[in-house]
Amino acid sequence: MSLSLSLSTLLCVVGISIGQLMFKKAAAALPVQPEVMDWLLNGWLITSLALYGITTLGWIWILRHAPLHLAYPFMGLAFLIVPTLAWLFLGEPLQWRTLAGGVLIVAGVALASTH
Length: 115
Hints:
Layout: H1 3-29, H2 36-40, H3 43-65, H4 68-71, H5 78-90, H6 96-112
Helix pairs in contact: 1-3, 1-5, 5-6
């Protein structure tokens, strides 16, 4: 894959990862017994769904230009990005096992993304 296509793919993965944090915020904003309007008026949920929609369109564009077997391994990076962002912005714990697993995933993405 070209550098620009690889960067676009990475941008999609980061967008999806940010969307996961926003889904977490949406869940936290719901009352204990949510009603339909609580879901429909949840700003975090609306924004995260919009972000997912945009990243899905980006992903379709990427798949138009890259083979799936080269693009898809990048999605594995979310397993490192999401916990790291959750640690930074939500104060969630970050375990060494998560980081070690993330390093293995990054190595796998690098290996799988080469011809």
